[in-house]
Fold this protein.
Amino acid sequence: MQQMKCRDAFAAECGLFTKIYMEDSKMVEKKDTKSVHRIIPCPDYDVTGVESWLSYMAEQGYILRDGGVFRGIAAFDRCEPEKVRYRLQPAQKGFVLYDNDGPSDDEVELNGAFGWKYVAKYGVFHIYRADDIDAREMDTDPDVQAMAMNSLHRSQRFNIIWMSIWIIVYLALVFTSQPFLSMVNRGSLISIALVLCVIIFIVTGLVKAVSLYRLRRKILDGDSLGSGTNWRRGARIYTVKAVVGIIAYVAMIVFGCMFILSDGVDRNQMPLSEYQGEVPFQTITDLVSCSDIQNVDNVDDDVNTISKWSDILWPENYKVYEYGDIVYTDGNICHGGLVITYHEAKNEWLANKLYQAYVQRAKQQSDYEKIDMKIAGLDDVDAYWDGSESVIMRKGRRLIVASFYMSGENRHEGDLEEWAGCIAESLE
């Protein structure tokens, strides 16, 4: 249910951005529409491009609303077509993620005295508008702009580094060093999508940091920011990139939510008695095929459970919990249980990688103790003690992890190898 809510939220966000993009492409509104939204077709560091685009929109009858910029989307109010001028000034404050603070009162008052009104903030720049096209040009002293850009660049660099560290730590905690286990248990598509979104998010931030650095160097070299750049050049490409970036940002949050919620533990679990199908491996009741075992009693199918799920890379997966009394032919009884995890991969390479991941995870346990075991006919086998006796077995594309929880002193010597051999027959 929670995953469905995440997917619905993601779909709603995608629908919103698709609507905005279609509006931007078609430039069609009803006559009575008082406001419209557009994706800004230039990054904030393309100063002259943004300025010329905003002036173009005013000539088309759309004036930028006060505070009308949010994450690259601009809100306009309809007006009579007019010629106005826009200027972007580097924010004096360092850039802080989600900071939407405007300029200082002194800065607004000073620029206002020359006919420039503060409108909105776009990235690391403040947007000003002059309704009088003959208004005195804003202060474009390269030294002043360079000081602001130096501050912005340092802050942007800090934020990129901090963001990257946070994301790396986040992924390390989520994936634990075993990405293949995460994919098979939490879902390959969700895991891969989350990684891609994070990569896009990081790359986008790095590209912006590099662009701001180049702009800073330009100002330090004595060049003015200027005006009049043709914003149409590369507008379509950037708009697509902007849409992808926005979707990636939203998707990262959504997929992260889905990843955490789909913990992969006992999903779709049901009582074994309610399961109508068959499992492709030996269970505890099948151990009667082993020598020395007469039968298995007191197996409560209402307590014992089974989980079954599918994944694009591992189409068939099971996890079965069974508990009961193993009755030997000599009359001895041993109470215990058997937990089996089964995976069938799309190919042998994936199965081998998953096998190695299970072995690596087992070796990380503090009470891990290897058990020498060989089972004929298997490609890989690893047996160990980590509080219980466990065996990891692989044959081709199929993999079984079996853990035996047996209590009492009535176990026969060599039971583990014999029982594991019985279960291994399921892989033939």
The chain has a mean pLDDT of 75. The chain is about 40% helix and 25% strand. The domain at 270-427 is CATH 3.40.1000 (Protein Transport Mog1p; Chain A).
